[in-house]
């Protein structure tokens, strides 16, 4: 699908009818969504026939865009049931209905529990019923994760929690929007804290944020945003690393073994030499006696 056509399709979608400020519900504009999807699809081949997760799906613009661009299985995750309801209505506008699986999940809370798992093991008062143990939790996985995360202005750390979760879910790449003013910080978080293999800004855009919550003076504020492509440290690369380590250990063992054998041979030769010397000394003594 051509970018112009995609953008006009996305224009017809409904957005949050009652946006919730505490969840930082700002719909991605069709222009921004189209840009992300175009880069992901055309430059990196991360959409067509790929499984996709839209983290913080809201009313579904990224998930629906991905589906229209030929994605395979698409899963949308959000903590807000009302948003999921509106997303469902958007999916039903299509004939046949667009297939996007929807899931209610608090990503920030899950990451908090996951990261604190070891501490919680020692916590006596822990509420067993709601606790998710690292070993028990299987993260949903997809080739590509798309997210326009909360920027963390309302719930501190929500932006990093979203990135952390996205990286646990992505097989190949995470695409995420972040304010350009946080560029250095995001790179540090992605690479140093979350162990990304790479983190690159693949597009720079202007985001016209509507004054939907009434806390800005103007009707619309312009925010500069980066589209990031982040590669998680892949399990395959890790496996290769592990294999390299095993090969290295095997070779070291062989070297040790060879050195041992050499030592043994050396000492056997020395022993023989000694014996030979002893015998020849004995012989010459005997000869002397004769
Ligand atoms: N993807 C949509 C919405 C982006 S706004 C779009 O591009 O238009 C951010 C979304 O993250 C909102 O839908 C909000 O409900 C969701 N969200 C905020 N906190 C969340 C959490 N802790 N867990 C899951 N989703 C959350």
Structure description:
- This protein is 47% helix and 19% strand.
- The termini are far apart.
- It is built from nine helices and seven strands; from the N terminus they run H-H-E-H-E-H-E-H-H-E-H-E-H-E-E-H.
- The longest helix has 55 residues.
- It has a seven-stranded mixed beta sheet with strand order 3-2-1-4-5-7-6.
- Strand 1, helix 3 and strand 2 form a beta-alpha-beta unit.
- By secondary structure, the chain is α/β, with parallel strands linked by helices.
- The structure holds S-adenosyl-L-homocysteine (SAH).
- The site of S-adenosyl-L-homocysteine (SAH) has 23 residues, from helix 3 and helix 5.
Bound molecules: S-adenosyl-L-homocysteine
What is the average of the pLDDT values?
Answer: 86
Helix content: 40-55%
Low-confidence runs of at least 5 consecutive residues? 118-126
Radius of gyration from the CA trace? Answer: 31 Å
- Broad structural category: alpha/beta
> Largest sheet, described in full?
7 strands, mixed
Coarse morphology? elongated
The overall strand count is 7
Distance between the termini: 110 Å
Please specify the SSE layout and strand pairing.
Elements lengths: L2 H9 L18 H14 L8 E4 L5 H8 L5 E5 L2 H12 L8 E4 L2 H9 L1 H5 L20 E6 L10 H12 E10 L3 H11 L4 E13 L9 E12 L3 H55 L1
Parallel strand pairs: 1-2, 1-4, 2-3, 4-5
Antiparallel strand pairs: 5-7, 6-7
Bound molecules: S-adenosyl-L-homocysteine.
């Amino acid at each position: 699908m051509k970018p112009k056509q995609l953008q006009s399709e996305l224009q017809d979608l409904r957005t949050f009818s009652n946006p919730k400020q505490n969840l930082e519900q700002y719909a991605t504009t069709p222009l921004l969504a189209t840009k992300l999807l175009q880069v992901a699809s055309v430059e990196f081949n991360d959409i067509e026939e790929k499984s996709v997760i839209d983290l913080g799906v809201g009313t579904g613009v990224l998930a629906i865009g991905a589906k229209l661009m030929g994605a395979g299985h698409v899963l949308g995750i959000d903590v807000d049931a009302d948003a999921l309801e509106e997303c469902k209505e958007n999916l039903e506008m299509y004939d046949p209905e667009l297939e996007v699986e929807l899931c209610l999940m608090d990503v920030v809370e899950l990451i908090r529990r996951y990261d604190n798992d070891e501490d919680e093991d020692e916590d006596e008062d822990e509420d067993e019923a709601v606790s998710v143990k690292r070993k028990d939790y299987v993260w949903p996985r997809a080739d590509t994760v798309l997210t326009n995360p909360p920027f963390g202005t309302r719930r501190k750390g929500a932006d990093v929690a979203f990135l952390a979760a996205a990286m646990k879910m992505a097989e190949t790449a995470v695409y995420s929007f972040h304010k350009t003013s946080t560029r250095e910080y995001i790179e540090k978080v992605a690479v140093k804290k979350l162990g990304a293999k790479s983190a690159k800004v693949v597009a720079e855009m202007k985001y016209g944020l509507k004054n939907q919550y009434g806390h800005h003076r103007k009707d619309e504020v312009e925010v500069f945003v980066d589209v990031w492509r982040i590669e998680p440290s892949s399990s395959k690369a890790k496996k290769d690393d592990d294999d390299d380590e095993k090969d290295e250990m095997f070779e070291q063992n062989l070297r040790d073994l060879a050195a041992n054998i050499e030592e043994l041979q050396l000492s056997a030769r020395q022993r023989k030499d000694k014996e030979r010397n002893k015998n020849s000394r004995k012989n010459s003594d005997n000869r002397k006696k004769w």
